[in-house]
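Protocol step 4 of 6: record predicted structures for both targets in the notebook before any analysis. Target 1:
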Amino acid sequence: MLRAMSPLLLLSLACSGGPAPDSAPGDTAADTAGELSPEALVQSLGEAGPYGVGYTEEEVDYTDPAGQPRTLRLAVWYPSTDTQGQAVQYLGFVDAPGVMRDATVAEGPFPVVVFSHGHMGYAEVSGFLLAHLASHGWLVMSPDRTGNTISDDAQRNTEIYFQRPADISAVIDHVARDWAATVDADHIVGMGHSFGGYTMHALAGAAYDIQDIAPRCYDGTDTSNFCSTMSPSYQAIFTQGLADPRIETIMSVGAGDLDLLAPASRPSIARPCG
């Protein structure tokens, strides 16, 4: 199922008029889509793209909305002109066929995918898909969600619900600064699975149903993870919202925790047309 998401993601950008990652300068994804039947386009995008795939790991340091310092391990996949290079193993033991560590970065600019893993995942959990996107000319960023990874306890606290969207915004800041020569900052796609899908809805502008939920946190009738460390200052963060207008399109797969978001706000968020 996840493998089928790659052409769907690219088709969604074609609908929105964004640039085709592996098209010639001046072409658009909509132009490319117009030249092929939908079936032929899906087939072509399901195959590896014209680029080699480079991979590197970086670190993102920022201050979260509550004023606390936070550090993220960041996995990066990118288009490369190299045809061979150093092999990669995610987490030191998961093989990544065809992916080259610290390979030469191809000349951009390239559109961006920022991926958010699910509860207790890790940055490379969907590495096969993210490497596939890089082969088609995407710059792909995926952070570990510190405190909510495969090596952490399953218990969540209130903070992780605002830290997750804030993490993605911090990654976009990092991309704009440290990858400025490679990135097409006008075309950023947010993509997430499960708890990462919730993250994308929040980033796209869905409002929190916080006025209804917070009183139940305080009186103890709601004992969910979301309420575990709720405070007036945290409530204010959710009231303000965590949207990031730099994200042009979202892909939310199997999103969880959508009951935290006001139903009336969901239809108005940005979403792919595919």
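Target 2:
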Amino acid sequence: MALTGMGNLEIELKKRHRYPYQWFRKQNDQWDQYTNFIYSTPQWQTLIEKIKEVHRQHQLDKNEIFQYAANRWYNFHSAKAIETIFLEIGDAIPAEDKDSEKDFYLNGIAFDHKTSVFPREYPVSFQEAKENKGHLIEWLYNNQSREKRFHLKNRLFVVVYDQRGEHWKLKAELALIKNAIHNYLTLFDPHLLHCINFGDQQALSDIIWVER
């Protein structure tokens, strides 16, 4: 994704910020099917029109289907842009055998990446978490969703934190995220990765901090 395209997508993603971020239900196959148009719809206004169409067709609650579709759309297109950033500015090599457990390779190591807001349930402050990232990494693995993307393989976490508490809005700050990823990859050292043991398997992980 070219810089111009990335800038345009950032503008589109930020249009989601006008509305509160809510989930009325856990993700499920039926509502995913209702909203699978999000993958091929990068423009916010087109998204709104498709949400209206699904609302009319299936007689769904207007606010619930809006939030479900808008949240999926926001998180998906942010994640795809961040994956593109990894591939464009570092030594990351796209995984030809890409699946839910790997997006790219760094120094020959397969990684999935996941952008996570700093969890409100986490028992220590953001500053304390930065000083002991290994504990947060293990917490994120142990508290991940048990849905489709659940796994215990190598993962790079992009953790976003906003001092005003609006952490989710930083997922749209693609320029800020790009700078953080660039700084991380410039100094990337596989020997500094955090190693976690899960019974008979291990995972390598790290955190890229994005804060405002």
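Step 5 preliminary note on target 2. The longest helix spans residues 62-89. The chain has a mean pLDDT of 92.
Proceed to step 6 after PI sign-off.
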